[in-house]
Design a protein that fits this description.
The chain is α/β, with parallel strands linked by helices. It has two domains: 229 residues, TIM Barrel; 64 residues, Non-ribosomal Peptide Synthetase Peptidyl Carrier Protein, Chain A (Orthogonal Bundle). It is 46% helix and 13% strand. The chain has 14 helices and nine strands. Strands 1, 2, 3, 4, 5, 6, 7, 8 and 9 form a nine-stranded parallel beta sheet that branches. α4 runs parallel beside α6 and α11 runs antiparallel to α12. The longest helix is centred in the C-terminal third of the chain and has 19 residues. It is globular and about 55 Å long. The N and C termini lie far apart (45 Å). Keywords: Flavoprotein, FMN, NADP, Nucleotide-binding, Oxidoreductase, RNA-binding, tRNA processing, tRNA-binding.
Length: 310
């Protein structure tokens, strides 16, 4: 079987972000340069109980290749059932276990970053994914600890489960999204294991991505919040361009808008408002623009507004 992921050069990966990395957004970053796209985090529970919304969340765009679905779960049996459902879905190249989500709701259920506090349990669950998955790749996304930093222990536990790569957000669970990212911890993980390590956390632009790759010697960068409102960072990294024209930005914004309408229907206009709030950051007249678009729900009027503003 031909390997779809080429680790010989640094990978540019879109991080899973709840409420943002839906199919339209993923198809846009894929088109403009992302090597791997990953679904939003899917609850194993919701998958096993065949929630309609969840099944829609794992649909992918034809261009997403390779495509990885991220699941969260706190029990081996439940995770096994979720994996078996995904086995029957065409077009998924890998299953990623979320071992990093700091959200209280996820943490209190015993999944996400909770697993970092019980590495034995993490190994049980991750090994279950590896054992039952018929997909080409098994991967994990982690943080560097719950309260204490234990990056090397985590890296070794994950490696022991036979994963193809690990993506690491360089903060503890306690660090949420505010504490400084510990790139030394990522570097230490990279040195401790032989599997590829992908660096994540505050990689917000072209410069930073280059710097983090060089500093940590990681096998790639994973960009999440840094891509919201600036998905062209993937284009910049893919093509090695530091400057990006406003024309290119506008092309990407319109492409994203069309993709959202395509996938979500007319409701996409309302959904796109929060994205336009991000896109318009730093532009003259952004506040007035936001006030106006917050009242628009007609797809054609909205498209004209975007055309004229950007």
């Amino acid at each position: 079987m031909e390997k779809k992921i080429d680790f010989s050069k640094p990978l540019i990966v879109l991080a899973p972000l709840a409420g943002y990395t839906d199919l339209p957004f993923r198809s846009v970053v894929k088109k403009f340069g992302a090597d791997i796209t990953i679904s939003e985090m899917i609850s194993s529970n919701a998958l096993v109980y065949k929630s309609k919304k969840t099944l829609k969340m794992i649909e992918k765009s034809p261009s997403e290749d390779p495509y990885i679905v991220q699941i969260a779960g706190n029990k081996p049996e439940l995770v096994r059932d979720a994996v078996e459902i995904l086995n029957d879905v065409e077009g998924i190249d890998g299953i990623d276990l979320n071992c990093g989500c700091p959200a209280p709701k996820v943490f209190s259920h015993g999944s996400g970053s909770n697993l970092l506090g019980d590495l034995k349990k993490l190994e049980d669950i991750l090994s279950t994914v590896k054992k039952y998955s018929k997909k080409q790749y098994t991967t994990a996304k982690v943080r560097i600890g719950v309260n204490e930093k234990i990056p090397v222990d985590i890296a070794k536990a994950v490696e022991a489960c036979g994963v193809d790569y690990v993506a690491v957000h360089g903060r503890t669970r306690a660090g949420k999204y505010k504490a400084p990212v510990d790139y030394d911890a990522i570097k230490a993980m990279k040195e401790a294991v032989s599997i590829p390590v992908i660096a994540n956390g505050d990689i917000k632009d072209y410069e930073k991505a280059k710097e983090v790759l060089k500093y940590t010697n990681a096998d790639g960068v994973m960009i999440g919040r840094g891509a919201i409102g600036k998905p062209w960072v993937f284009y910049q990294l893919k093509h090695g361009v530091e400057d990006i024209t406003n024309e290119k930005k506008k092309e990407i914004i319109l492409e994203h808008y069309d993709a959202v309408l395509d996938f979500h229907g007319e409701h996409g206009v309302v959904m796109f408002r929060k994205l336009l709030h991000s896109y318009s950051k730093g532009y003259t007249g952004a506040n007035e623009f936001r006030d106006i678009i917050n009242r628009i729900s007609d797809p054609h009027v909205m498209r004209d507004m975007i055309e004229n503003f950007f």
